[in-house]
């Protein structure tokens, strides 16, 4: 007997040239795409349709083939199909529900796709009809809510979330998606929270739920009252917030693991040997080899949680028992999750106990550590647009954290010490730090390490000015907390001072190139004021008196850089150009640094002359500094410990609109591949009772 092949909804015998036969569901679709009511000749038409396995490819292709005018002619049948899909969601037989959900996905995508080229009809009218839209969409949302909250099939819940993601992401700009008005009115917020609070549901659907919530929160967020924003901001249930944090941590951990695996694979290969042999000329290529696609969707979810909900801050410091860090005998066995959706979904082993490959000596981890490691990877290379956006969002999240009083309390807590192995960019002049030698320190040290790392590794032609400004602001906000609460942090402050001085040196060396694109004086002023903060208030938060002495030593040792900066800003502030005002601000800010240099340099020269020493050691310079503090006069500068708080709407709206657009496109692309196959779903419901 000849083998039967199936292609595009057609059945044909491979051994004959007879006209191919169409499968029954395709014939039924063809009836819908006529102007006649398909149930006229067959009263059981709709009942039978939802027993048939959906052919998504054919249905979407059929919609795509029609022009706007042709689509309008069959509007009544499209409305009828949409309404019968919603009715089928209430059926007892799961096969009907599955097929109805799949059909809704195809309808929504197909009609929206058509609207891109033809704007002559309204989407809502085309799908459901204006007169029935409110009731139908209410019924749809209630059915989806019931399915998500029910004890039933996990596959059905997965498909419900996929339909909702399909609904949200059919337009690139989600704020132009008018169907979402009904998702706002008929909220599924509680259903999403229920998924996140239940260990089983969270393992199966947490990723999709978190991405969906992040997108819904961004619907017209600056134009109207978004109920998802309001509700997310007041969630205080510990299990729900921890569940959300866990999902985010797992996704970021998976990224970190993939990167580490690729890095190790790369380092052990021939290319690495070649790189070591010839030096750094291949380093850029090497980085490209080990790049892993970033996950902006999950990062957006973390941002919204940190930014909107103060209770979520506590989740950042909580360890994760479900990641195999603190397992208990009663812990449920991890279940293999359904493939999630998003920018770059975690792989199927994301929930396994070995999912978080922690440093050997670290007993626990938490979301903040995972996030810092993630940030250290994506912030290495900001030339790629996605990484640039990810890097910026990482710094925005850290800005929100650095402003929060409670977050600062646990960041600086001496009783919460961790060994955080940040990824460091390969550079010629330094060796890779051995992971085992990392000390256990308060988490704020890892944040400062990350900022120092960024400062020293991004002084390049395509200068990321915006990221540098954010980086310096984060350091400043942390110092303000330390000064306010008199926290004496045992940190290698010299590394920060050295990085800041080198940054000033870079700005001066590349003055002409940088001034063509950026106001470098804003950044220079911020750096100088960080030094002013240390000079004015350092005695209240530096760990020891000798740390304060070392600050003066660094300023004196690197005085040529400050002298050159003063000469540059003085030159520009005395000219009547566009940089006069910003340059003059830097001139005024340098007053105390110049006073220190001008006070101690003659004393050091005199000491060297009296003792007949051509070059003083560090200890000798420090001795001069300590014995001459009394005669040093400094000016009190106001506002050094003040800062403008982060505001999304006024300064970051354009960035987030573009970011959400990018995420919407990526989620839609992933969704298109994941929903085309029904095999897993149909296996679960292979018989109808």
TrEMBL record:
Name of a matching Pfam family: ARMH3_C
Major location (coarse): membrane
Keyword RNA-binding in record: no
Domain Armadillo-like helical: 435-671
UniProt xrefs under InterPro entries: ARM-type_fold, ARMD3-like, ARMH3_C
Coiled-coil intervals, chain numbering: none
SMART domains: DUF1741
Protein keywords: Membrane, Transmembrane, Transmembrane helix
Cellular compartments annotated: Membrane
Protein name per UniProt: ARMD3 protein
Higher taxonomy: Eukaryota, Metazoa, Chordata, Craniata, Vertebrata
Gene responsible for this protein: Armh3
